[in-house]
């Protein structure tokens, strides 16, 4: 029997999640970052269209942190972010304002049953259109 790590098969067409964290040292900076992220997320969503499946953002007020989870249908869709002026300007603003950030890209690794239980069951990525 193989380990769960051995059963993970990254599929660039299975979608990716990007998790971005913005650490803010004051409540005012936290609220500012949340507002900026709200405005830019809407603009970026319009610019990317169907390439961007969703953006979900939440605040951890006691920790003074904004966390954004963004889903893309395919890995190549993520690269389109580099062509969106609002995203480029937002990244520059974060650097200029000296927010501490971290982010990670999490690609689809396969059906959960195969990874967890070495099952032969397989279903499409939940980030893919089932009608395709």
UniProtKB/TrEMBL annotation:
Q: What is this protein called?
A: Uncharacterized protein
Organism equals Dactylosporangium darangshiense
């Amino acid at each position: 029997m193989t380990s769960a790590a051995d059963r993970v098969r990254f599929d660039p067409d299975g979608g990716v999640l990007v998790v971005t964290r913005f650490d803010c040292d004051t409540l005012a900076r936290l609220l500012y970052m949340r507002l900026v992220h709200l405005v830019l997320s809407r603009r970026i969503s319009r610019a990317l269209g169907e390439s961007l499946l969703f953006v979900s953002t939440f605040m951890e007020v006691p920790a003074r942190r904004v966390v954004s989870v963004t889903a893309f249908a395919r890995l190549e869709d993520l690269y389109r972010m580099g062509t969106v002026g609002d995203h480029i300007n937002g990244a520059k603003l974060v650097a200029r304002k000296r927010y501490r950030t971290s982010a990670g890209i999490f690609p689809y690794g396969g059906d959960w049953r195969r990874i967890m239980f070495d099952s032969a069951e397989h279903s499409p990525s939940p980030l893919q259109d089932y009608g395709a």
